[in-house]
Amino acid sequence: MTRLLSGPMIGTVWRTRRSRRSGFVGAFIALFFAAATATSAGILLESGARAESPPERYAGAAVVVGGKQSYDPPADVGNPDAGTGESVVLPERVRLDRGMVDRIARIDGVLEAVPDLSFPANLLVKGQPLTGPNGTRSWGHGWDSARLMPFTVSAGRPPRAGGEVLVDAQLAARARVAVGQDVQISIHGRPETFRLVGTAAGGSPLTKQAALFFAPDEAARLSGNPTGKIDTIGVLAAPGTGVDELAARITGTIGEDQITALTGGQRGYTEFLDLGNSASNLVALSGSFGGVGLAIVLFVVAATFALSVHQRRREIALLRAVGATPGQIRRMVAAEALMISVPAALAGAVLGIPLATWLRKMLVAGDMIPDTLALHIGVLPAVVGVGSTVLVALAATYVAGRQASKASPTEALGEAAAPRRLIGGFRLSLGLLLLAGSITLVTVSRSATGDGAPAVSLGLLFALILTVVVLSPLLVRVAAAVLGMVISRFSPGSGYLAAANSRANARRLAPAVSTMVLAVGFACTEIFLQTTLLYAAATQAAGGSVADHVVVGGDTRLSPEVVAAVRQVDGVDAATGITYTKVLTGTFDDLDMSAVPAQAVDTDDLAAAVDLDVRSGDLGALRGESVALSQSEATVLGLAVGDLMPVRLGDGTLLKVKIVATYGRGLGYGDVTLPAALVAGHTTDGLTQQVLVRAQPGADQQRVRTELAGLAARFPGLTVTEPHEALAARDEDQRANQWGAFLVTGVIVVYTAIAVINTLAMTTSARTREFALLQLIGATRQQVLRMARWESVMLIVTAIVFGSVVAVTTLVPFSLGRAQLGFPYTPPLVYLGILGGIAVIGLFSVMLPAHRVLRQRPVEVAGVHE
Amino acid sequence: MTRVSTFQAAAVTDYAILLKSVSRVYGKGQSAVTALRDVTVGCPRGSFTAVMGPSGSGKSTFLHCAAGLDRPTRGSVVLGGVELSGLKEAELTKLRRERAGFVFQAFNLVPALDVAENIALPLRLAGKRVDPAWIRQVAAQVGLQDRMRHRPPELSGGQQQRVAIARALVMKPDVVFGDEPTGALDTTSGRQVLTLLRDAARSGHTVVMVTHDPSAAAMADRVVFLADGRLVGELEQPTLRTVASRMAGLGAWVEGIEVMP
Ligand SMILES: Nc1ncnc2c1ncn2[C@@H]1O[C@H](COP(=O)(O)OP(=O)(O)OP(=O)(O)O)[C@@H](O)[C@H]1O
Ligand SMILES: [Mg+2]
What is the Cα–Cα distance from B217 to B212, expressed in whole angstroms? Predict the structure, then answer.
């Protein structure tokens, strides 16, 4: 016993205190940032879920009733109480029957039910349409709805007859028009003349729209809504009626599958549909951010704890030697994990708040969410963030602690840890099993072609990374053997030592390499998944573009009538109007549907104006209740030409349509193509985005272009662009849509980078004694540093190779399937950037601790000074 | 006590290692500890010197200063004819690599390397060619020619110390330093190690060894005694009996007893 406690043992305990400290710090950092990520994701999620959307024109309404803007299939057809399946947001306005107004008016506590309808109406100044403030939309309404804000006449009088208009005072000021004057207004994209009879202002200025008011009958006519539908109903409450109670009563009476009745800060969701979309986008984005983030955190924390326990084997073995049972060791390790993870998670949760604030700012800057969407900082995300972090830590500790408790007491007595098997039998079998599983997933991923494809790829990515983590000691050993040969050749002293060390310490290096592979694999996969999608969309769009000119309407869009006018232009051979929307697709076997991008087209000239790369069927048959599907969408649904399928339009209208063709360029033009006639009346504004124009062979293109541009007199806001400009603009839009995904990917990549720095620094800091010994037997400081550098080079190369293999294995099936590309689109500069990043991080996080370690005098640490 | 006069008379180069008025103070101010006080010792070429003294008397500090692992606060050290005080860290390391070999009490070897590689390591670090025949010869000297491909954890403590000696000898250094090289060994292994060190001295290497064990010291040509950082005695051609009685005279065998010279 005395021998045990004297000489080397005391030194051992004393020395492990250092590695223990670096281990603790490492675990703390990993958990701290984990909690920050989880909390910020939670805050964003809650903010999206609770986002308020203050109303403007409906500010004076107690309750705002609108159609139900989502499709919620029953989870179980037989059992109505089973709740609903996956809810899908409907992107276009779900309108209400006019009869609803009276039904609501009769409900107890309703003072008045005021119908509102909105149609695109832009004041023209010198022939150019004026938008709302900051490029927002400009809408026309019936003057009867002005009560809902309420607007009060600030000049002139209200509109009473056809041909009269009253505009909001800000708009009048911007347009410099005065009461009594005749004004040109573009209604649904067609100009008409009105007499400006008055201006009006509400309680606060309009920031998200411009408003033009017409006499109620005139408004109904102008809205062009033949079915007599209305957009929303504003409800004024009888005195003494509670608004929430009233809303509940309205919903209860009419049925919550028919309408949504919103109150307070929620009313704006009915007024501004896109806000609802961006809030639910934020929920989806932060949901995947949190989900992916937690999976990454699990890997990182597991690696960190494995490393920290590995570095303490000696100390643990000593404790075993003096009588600690494996169970006691496990409990000790768990207690320590708890001791670190609780404060780390609490501190991290606090950092989550500024992180969420920053992310919100970036999302606003990228136009993903409106500035009005405020951050809701509640207790729940912090509780969930802290809780999940602590749970992850305990799970990781359980695994690491089991390893630790297996340490044999004799290891404490030996000079160096007894050579352990590189990889246990169980671990090896698990790794091989995972490898087999990943290979199976590759085939699944190859055939996963729809919008779900990225999710399948993510699953494959994690399966592969898990495989790498489990097999990492083996992989490091193999890589060290191969690279070692090269490096020893280069540098017979330091390089040789580095090679020998990496070979012998594969187990010790495995956690650091795993984190590096995770960083490279995740960054490459997630980034190139996006670039591949964008690239495929852009090339498909470009490949399908056969138009000579593209007529576009900009922010205010075009009247659908423009297509017929374009066809009249001299020298025009074919013209097709395209309206981009979303529709819900599914099959008759399954009530669940998902929203996919769609284009509504004029079918007459379709083939002449755009080349969709038809794979089967005939686009000529696209008439009446029919659709064409992208090849990948058809594969996802398991349908073929000739089959019938259900489609819900953007406003939820259910159609039963026949598939007449499939085509290849789904990413470029939308997965569903359907006749414009089917969609007419089912979009919020009823307008068209662009018209593709093909000139007659031999026509004078310049003249055609000039004549097309001349149509602007009849279709205000119309401009003519070259196809490549239109493509570039569309590409830009898509890029902007990916901004959120890029942003959260970036945050997770930064987290993995921190994890890499962390594990490498931990690994290096624990090498104090080894570095000292080398110096004592004659290695110069420079030689030790060179050795460390060679080692980090080997780690970096290993991580880059395996990380790239992981990424390629994940991306190739995806690009073959979803993107229809032979190889993922990997911009070389981006790839080099990722590699450069990992190289810099790898070098610095080895070399800085190495310098620090070498600052200590070797005699003091090398086991000389017992 | 002939030390001062002898050194001043003899040419510096007669000594493989020479410490002149070396003092080493750890820390500053109140907490300063003087580990060596004005110590002057020279070890002639090919001699085998044992350093003895009570615990805390400065033996390790002496060895570190002599070997250039530590820099004295005052005084000068000459190793193989080179004055150490003027050297930069890298020059010092290179000099150490060429002229000095080390054997410590424990934790001597690089676990990632096998026996042959551990022995050859100083050659590699010095950028010298590794001659397998020479490595085998050195390994054979310490009786480990059959364990060349074994890694340190697979060796016994005594075998590990023998590997360390082989490694210390592989560069044919002027001086081999040992800090309690037998401290962690049983009697038989300890004797083997001591015999190897004495053989090394016989073949022209100078050996300086710190030890607590009088029987180990008795294998040396000469014993120098330290107490409280001062050189307090010297014994030529020691025997177990003379060493033991001198140590007893110092009155400090038991750890923790403060000794006044
Ligand atoms: N780095 C240091 N900082 C402060 N004091 C030190 C340091 N190293 C040694 N000392 C002190 O210097 C004195 C001499 O130490 P040294 O290690 O040389 O003794 P030693 O003779 O080798 O003892 P032992 O036989 O116990 O190994 C001791 O009092 C010790 O506490
Ligand atoms: Mg000592």
Answer: 8
For an interface test with A, which of B60, B88, B93, B175 has the most A Cβ atoms less than 10 Å from its Cβ? B93
Q: Report the DSSP pairing between strands A164-168 and A210-214.
A: antiparallel
Ligand 1: residue whose CA is nearest its atom 27: B55
List all residues 6 or more positions away from A129 whose beta carbon is below 8 Å from its beta carbon: A122, A123, A138, A186, A556, A716, A717
Radius of gyration in angstroms for the set of CA atoms belonging to chain A, rounded to a whole number: 33
Residue A66 in this model has a pLDDT that exceeds 90 = yes
Q: Which two tokens stand for residue B23?
A: 């003092």
Which of B23, B26, B259 is the pocket-test mutation for ligand 1 (most atoms within 8 Å of CB)?
Answer: B26
B91 interfacial to chain A (CB closer than 8 Å): no
Q: Does B134 touch chain A (CB under 8 A)?
A: no
pLDDT digits (tens, 9 = 90+) for A325-375: 777 778 877 888 888 889 999 999 999 999 999 999 998 888 888 777 888
**pLDDT digits over B75-89, tens only?**
999 988 889 888 887
- Helix ranges, A422-573 (H): 425-447, 453-490, 494-504, 506-544, 562-568
The domain that holds B211 is classified in CATH as 3.40.50.300
The residue ranges of DSSP E strands in A679-794, in sequence order, are 690-695, 719-721
pTM of the model: 0.79
Whole domain around residue B54: which residue ranges? 6-254
Gyration radius of chain B's alpha carbons: 18
Of residues B136 and A316, which shows the higher confidence score? B136
Residue A260, CA distances (Å) to A63, A96, A232 in order = 10, 11, 10
Phi/psi zone of residue A77: left (φ > 0), alpha (ψ -120 to 50 degrees), beta?
alpha
Q: Are A68 and A259 in contact (CB under 8 A)?
A: yes
A655 by Cβ neighbours in 10 Å (0-12 / 13-18 / 19+) ranks as middle
CA A749, A750, A751, A755: dihedral to nearest 10 degrees?
Answer: 100
The chain B residue lying nearest A505, using CA atoms, is B112
What length is written for chain B? Answer: 261
Burial category of A199 from C-beta neighbours within 10 Å (exposed 0-12, middle 13-18, buried 19 and up): buried
Q: Where are the domains of chain A?
A: 1-50+280-417, 63-276, 421-542+726-866, 554-717
Q: Count how many domains chain B has.
A: 1
Residue B229 falls within a domain, yes or no?
yes
Q: Annotate A454-472 with DSSP letters as a single string.
A: HHHHHHHHHHHHHHHHHHH
Task: Report angle CA A123, A129, A134 to the nearest 5 degrees.
Answer: 95
Q: What is the pLDDT of residues A660-682, one digit of tens each?
A: 999 989 888 889 999 999 998 89
> According to the 3-state scheme, what is the secondary structure of A646-691?
EEECCCCCEEEEEEEEEECCHHHHCCEEEEHHHHCCCCCCCCECEE
For the cut 80, the answer to whether the pLDDT of residue A421 exceeds it is: no
Q: What ipTM does the predicted assembly reach? A: 0.76
> N- to C-terminal Cα distance for chain A?
17
With 0-12 CB in 10 A as exposed, 13-18 as middle and 19+ as buried, what is A734?
middle
Q: How far apart are CA B222 and CA B208, in angstroms?
A: 10
Q: Taking CB atoms and an 8 Å cutoff, what residues of chain A touch B131?
A: none
B20-33 tens-digit pLDDT: 999 999 888 788 88
Q: Which atom of ligand 1 is nearest to the CA of B34?
A: 12
Q: Supply the pLDDT for residue A77.
A: 65
Q: Is the dihedral of CA B240, B243, B245, B248 positive or negative?
A: negative
Residue B124 near residue A493 (C-beta atoms within 8 A): yes
B109 close to A (CB below 8 A): yes
My answer on whether omega of the bond before A150 falls inside 30° of 0, hence cis, is yes
Residue A338, number of CB atoms within 10 A of its CB: 14
